[in-house]
Every structure is written in structure tokens, then in C-alpha cells.
Amino acid sequence: MILLEKLGQQLGHPTRSVYGWLITKFLKYHNKMLEESAVSLSGIQPGDTVLELIGVDYSKYMHKMAGDLLKELVSNGKVSLYQCDVAAMPLADNMVDKVFHCNCYYYWPDLRKGAAEIHRVMKPGEGRVVSFASRREFPGRSWQPEAYMAALRASGFNQVTMEDHQHRHITCQAIYATADK
Ligand SMILES: C[S@@+](CC[C@H](N)C(=O)[O-])C[C@H]1O[C@@H](n2cnc3c(N)ncnc32)[C@H](O)[C@@H]1O
């Protein structure tokens, strides 16, 4: 149980440690399918600015790991990475076409602030958010899709819907939201 609690904490904010290292192995294996599904459901078009190609994570450890992994894409300007809170991103208003995130919102300390900040950076028009989540697996996570959907609506998103996706033995929930401004 203590091990699961430690791993659960690390999922929400990985640090350079044995537990953090274990979590990165888990994420690489388990979340690959989630990330690929989120990308395909986002309907990304050539030329779109996508939050993830602008990568945001407040964990120093994950930020460094992503930087190492994507060194070439970062150095040729195709990917930008920021170590910051999703609720305070160093991005201009109205600059992002699509946002996707996997297994993330339930770690945010304030869903409303996170959703409002995402709304702020999205371009006016039909900007779309896709949030992909697998069910609760570790203690300490508050997997509350309805609360996140409510935060998205309160932040100005509309057409906020959720649907189940089955990938082999894993059931995931995709939340969609449109940022008409
Ligand atoms: C379970 S991991 C998922 C990572 C990745 N999407 C994947 O599927 O492998 C959750 C990540 O969200 C980050 N995170 C949690 N709360 C955050 C916040 N408020 N702002 C920025 N990053 C946050 C954590 O540091 C962690 O790296």
C-alpha cells in the first residue's frame, strides 16, 4: 500500500528518484496507447499549433526527460517545452489550435484555473480540447471527469462531452470540449 501511495504521488509530480524512474517506465508502456489515441481524436491538421507540441509539465524531472527525448525537435523549433503549471502558462492569448492531455487533470490542484488557462491560450473559433483518461489505479488520485467537465463549461467551453473508448483490456474516457470565443 505504501508503495502504491508513493507511486500515486509520483504520477502526479514525478521527481528524480527510484519511484520517479519506475513511473516513467510505467508511463512509457501504459500511456503510449492513450497518447496515440488522443492525437488521432484531436483531428490535428497540418500547420496547427498544438499544446503538447508546446509541452507543459511542472515536474523538473519530466521536463528534463522530455527535453532529452525530443532534443532534435526542440533544437529545430518544432517543439517547445515549458516547466510550468498548467494554470499559469507562459503563452500568449489565442495562440493554440488544439490541446490534448492524457491522465493529467486529476492531479491539477485547481481544475477551474487549469481549464480557464487552457481557454485563454486557445484561438477563437473551433479550438478543441481532448482529455484522455484511464480509470483510477493508484491511491491519491481524484478521477472526477464530471468535475473537469464542469470546470471546462464554467471556463467558456461548450459542446463538452465524454465517451468511453476500449483498447484491448483498458477502458478509457475521452472528454471533448470546444472553445468558441
Ligand atoms: C500521470 S502523468 C501523465 C504524463 C503523460 N501525459 C503520459 O501520458 O505519459 C501526469 C503528469 O502531469 C503533470 N502535472 C500534474 N499537475 C500539473 C500541473 N498543475 N501543471 C503542469 N503539469 C502537471 C505531472 O508532473 C505528471 O508528469
TrEMBL record:
A Pfam family the protein falls into: Methyltransf_11
Methyltransferase type domain location: 51-125
BP GO terms, sorted: sterol biosynthetic process
One MF annotation (Gene Ontology) recorded for this entry: sterol 24-C-methyltransferase activity
Keyword Transferase set for record: yes
Keyword annotations: Transferase
Gene Ontology cellular component annotations, sorted alphabetically: endoplasmic reticulum
Keyword Transferase: yes
Family in the record: Belongs to the class I-like SAM-binding methyltransferase superfamily. Erg6/SMT family.
Name this polypeptide is given: Methyltransferase type 11 domain-containing protein
Organism encoding this protein: Oncorhynchus tshawytscha
